[in-house]
Amino acid sequence: MTVSRLELAIGQIRFAREYTQSLISDLEPSDWFRQPAEGVSHLAWQVGHLAMAQYGLCLFRMRGRADVDPELMSSAFRKKFSKGTTPDPDPAMNPSPDEICDVFDRVYAQTMQELPTYSERVLDEPVEMPYAACATKYGGLLFCSHHEMLHAGQIGFLRRLLGKAPVR
User: Which of 26, 52, 133, 150 gives a 20 to 30 Å CA spacing to 143?
Assistant: First the structure.
């Protein structure tokens, strides 16, 4: 059985999300903004950042802005969790864990709804900088799963620092 490039990318994105979900499913809301050491990130920033990045890599880069986008996440949310931002440990200065998870889940659901509609030809279309490894839409989809696994590692480390058992 031959798997298309799009099916491969979707499978990797799905695997990464299932793994990330396994890391956050048993965490308490009180854990989300704890920074176990000075200068270390927190769970809320990691999950919010993954939602923002998946939107950018799998939705915006693939098709530009769409009418559904404001329902997926606000501009303020994107800015709060963008690359280079500093996690704020004050829960009052952040969306709640439930809000973050809602955005995380909505973006993923929209991604899984839209990606199968693209043709293989679209995958070879170029993208503008910044990009990680390959300046095509396909490269962005592959990077999405790799990026999520990188942050899943950080979430796993944060779990350990918070006294939680490892998942794997």
Answer: 26
Number of neighbours of residue 69 by Cβ within 10 angstroms: 18
25-47 pLDDT per residue, tens? 999 999 999 998 777 899 999 99
* Residue 168, domain member (yes or no): no
Hey, which residues does 126 pair with through a beta bridge?
136
Whether 99 is covered by a domain: the verdict is yes
Cβ contacts of residue 34 below 8 Å, gap of 6+? Answer: 42, 43, 89, 162
Q: For the segment 71-99, what is each residue's pLDDT rounded down to a tens digit? A: 999 999 999 999 999 999 999 999 999 99
Domain that holds residue 97: 5-161
Written as one string, the DSSP assignment of 16-31 is HHHHHHHHHTT--GGG
DSSP state of 69: H
Q: In which residue are the tokens 């709640």 written?
A: 96
Q: Which residue has the tokens 């501009």?
A: 75
Domain at 146, CATH number: 1.20.120.450
